[in-house]
Automatic annotation (TrEMBL):
One of its GO terms (molecular function) is DNA-binding transcription factor activity. It comes from the Bacteria. The lineage of its organism: Bacteria, Bacillati, Actinomycetota, Actinomycetes, Micromonosporales. Residues 40-59 bind DNA. Keywords: DNA-binding. Signal peptide: none annotated. Gene3D superfamilies: Tetracycline Repressor, domain 2 (1.10.357.10). This is TetR family transcriptional regulator. Residues 17-77 form the HTH tetR-type domain.
Length: 213
């Protein structure tokens, strides 16, 4: 009986994960077109093939669904692993010099933007008129700045930052350079190869915050 209960529990958990994923996938499409404000949760439920009550049970509110969607899209998965525990952060910290760290982050940034650019641009548009979307956009902006504050500290530990740049100034540059709108303009609209975008990121940030070679 114990084995059967474990099997049933495992099956229910897997079924819940699949349901959650289906709802997130549906929201990822509909929150871009026709857009967050124009998409009722009933439309998300219909697209995901679940009852509206299931959407409410899983996420509670439309804003919570949007927040979860942003978090999962940024992370690339729904594993409960904090930013500091992600592999790319460990990779960056293990590198010996600032330009190598910037190059590793540029690769992570390009991979992330390829996954989330369309949704984040739609969120930015929605945030101009919808308070829920504006709150999620601000939350993401705060998290990005916190991440860049951590990155700035790692770069500072190399001893390669320009002495005339304050820590806040370095964070500002990193925060600006990582903005998804840079990727959208250069890669998605201007057609830059991803490798050229990554090199642009490294060269731009290095010129602004690192001591000259």
């Amino acid at each position: 009986m114990a084995v059967k209960r474990r099997y049933e529990s495992s099956y229910r958990q897997e079924q819940a994960r699949r349901t959650r994923r289906a709802i997130l996938d549906a929201a990822a499409v509909l929150f871009v077109t026709p857009g967050y404000a124009a998409t009722p949760l009933t439309a998300v439920a219909a697209s995901a093939g679940v009852a509206i009550q299931t959407v409410y049970k899983t996420f509670g509110t439309k804003q919570a669904l949007l927040s979860a969607l942003v978090d999962v899209t940024v992370a690339g998965d729904d594993e409960p692993v904090a930013l500091a525990g992600r592999q790319f952060v460990a990779d960056i910290r293990a590198l010996p010099d600032a330009r190598s760290k910037l190059a590793r982050y540029a690769r992570h940034l390009a991979e992330t933007h390829a996954r989330l650019a369309q949704m984040m641009l739609a969120l930015a548009t929605a945030a101009t008129a919808d308070p829920d979307a504006a709150a999620i956009w601000q939350k993401n902006a705060d998290e990005r700045r916190a991440g860049m504050t951590m990155f700035a500290a790692d770069l500072a530990a190399t001893g390669e930052l320009r002495p005339d740049r304050t820590r806040d100034a370095v964070v500002d540059v990193l925060w600006l350079a990582m903005d998804v709108r840079n990727y959208d303009w250069l890669v998605r609209q201007r057609g830059w190869p991803v490798e050229r975008f990554e090199q642009w990121y490294v060269d731009t940030v290095a010129a602004a915050v690192l001591t000259p070679r």
